[in-house]
Amino acid sequence: MGNDRQQELMATNTVASLITQTASANFGSAALHFLSSVARFENFGAYYIPDLARPKPTLSFWSGRISDYWFQHDADLILATREAQLVILRQVNEAPDRGVNIERWHPEAGDARNDIYLRNGIVERVALSSREGRSGLRSFFLRSIKDGWLSDAEFTGICEILPIVHGLIGLRQKVVGAERHQMRFDGEVTRLRNFNVPAFADLSRREAAVCDSLIEGKSVAATALDLSVSEATVKTLRARAYRKLNVTSATELMALFIRSQPRA
User: What is the DSSP letter of 81?
Assistant: First the structure.
């Protein structure tokens, strides 16, 4: 068997193996390993927009060597800016009906994201955007300073296989949902309430449960089903929780939640 044919079979087997791990906890490391055959990335993640008519991007997935805390913390900081939300929405809306947009980017001096990239040792980012029906997905892959800028050959090669990983992230979103419920913190809002953590201690049991659902990225309808209450009740509980916590959005709730975690 010729070398070309052997390489083709190996590539096919690798992709097949990655597909089987789409819904597993090992998907992130398996995807980074898959990409490393062409170019190394420090981390990757994805923003998901459930409804492009009412765009509210949420961090859907993340994996890599940057700690979970800082990766999520920085993603929340970025999502908290209207400018960043508009960039994500524009890139998703500009994606072709069938296929993805691929862009290569790095923050310029003065860009608010520059400090984030420098602190985490990131030199550049490759991002892919796509849309399907009313939803949109934007995945991003971060290159470390120690690995240096992608060469032209690496970028050309990575553009051939990144759409595979991007597509599997979209599939994972449908099967598993957002990763918020898997955050590696000491507890959810309910636990913070139960331990009388300042701000959260005043929440009622149901208000805390609604906040848990918001952090998990669940819709009002899904939360209503989980709690066996009406959507109107969920909205009322959410409004009460926001007033007690002095926040106005799920993004601000997440930021408060992260700041309230016990430090090791």
Answer: S
Same domain for 132 and 202? no
CA dist 214 and 253 (Å) reads 8
Give helix 250-259 / helix 68-79 axis angle, nearest 10°: 150
- Amino acid identity of residue 11, one-letter, is A
Q: Which of 158, 179, 200 is the last residue of a domain?
A: 179
Look at strands 58-64 and 101-105 and give their pairing.
Answer: unpaired
Summarize pLDDT for 58-75 with one digit per residue, the tens. Answer: 888 888 877 665 677 677
Residue with tokens 């120690």: 146
- Give which of 264, 263, 260 is closest to 193, Cα–Cα: 260
Tracing tokens 């998990």 back to the chain, one arrives at 216
Same domain, yes or no: 123 and 197: no
**Residue 223 and residue 115 in one domain:** no
User: Quick one: 75 and 172 in the same domain?
Assistant: yes
Please report which helix (H) or strand (E) contains residue 160, including its range. Answer: helix 152-176
Same domain flag for 164 and 191: no
Question: DSSP label at 227?
Answer: H
Say what the pTM is. Answer: 0.64
Locate 80 and state its tokens.
């908290």
Q: Per residue in 130-151, pLDDT tens?
A: 998 888 999 999 999 999 999 9
Cα-Cα end-to-end distance for the chain = 55
**2 in a domain, yes or no?**
no
Q: What total number of domains does the chain contain?
A: 2
Say how far apart CA 205 and CA 200 lie, in whole Å.
10
